[in-house]
Write a structure and sequence with these properties.
It is globular and about 50 Å long. It is 38% helix and 18% strand. It is α/β, with parallel strands linked by helices and 165 residues long. It contains 5 helices and 5 strands. A 5-stranded parallel β-sheet has the order 3-2-1-4-5, with helices on both faces. The longest helix has 22 residues, at 58-79. It has one domain (6-161): Rossmann fold (3-Layer(aba) Sandwich), CATH 3.40.50.
Length: 165
């Protein structure tokens, strides 16, 4: 049995998502653990302002947001060549950190993988708030895949910004 027989990969559809899935595939190798692709959408019923729009079918809006995210997850899984026999796609609504942790625990995740974001040079050494909270609170090992900007050398950063080295 693979040590990480159940892997939850939380994606946000940023440019780090494909790299996060690639990390899961590298860990999985030929062992075929169950991989869960998870995306968390905002719960429209807990968003400020939803009660101020009378006549809006908020349940319909929520269903549409979830369906769009599910379709995007299916497309991402196909683009990353994930074997449909070993992949589950899931969309949850709510607080991102809470839902990632809840889903991972409910699925018996042995490993949780998510990306961290690059927000410029100042934040190079800081994790995003979701990544930081998941890392602190998860009950299983967590692998953070850094945004490509977080992996750049100072020379690459200067070159990318147009500053002469």
């Amino acid at each position: 049995m693979h040590p990480f027989d159940t892997i939850v990969v939380a994606v946000d559809f940023s440019d780090t998502s494909a790299e996060t899935i690639a990390a899961a595939l590298t860990i999985a190798r030929d062992q075929h653990p169950r991989i869960h692709l998870l995306h968390v959408v905002t719960d429209v019923f807990r968003t400020y302002g939803t009660v101020e729009a009378p006549g809006v079918d908020w349940a319909g809006v929520q269903r549409e947001v979830i369906e769009q995210a599910r379709n995007e997850l299916i497309g991402l899984a196909a683009a990353c060549k994930l074997d449909p026999l070993y992949v589950t796609v899931a969309v949850e609504a709510g607080d991102t950190t809470s839902e990632i942790l809840r889903y991972a625990e409910a699925q018996g995740a042995r490993l949780l993988i998510l990306g961290s974001h690059g927000h410029g040079i100042i934040r190079r050494f800081m994790l995003g708030s979701v990544a930081e909270r998941v890392l602190r609170l998860a009950k299983c090992p967590v692998l953070l895949v850094p945004h490509r900007l977080l992996r750049l050398t100072s020379f690459e950063v200067k070159a990318a910004s147009g500053v002469e080295a």
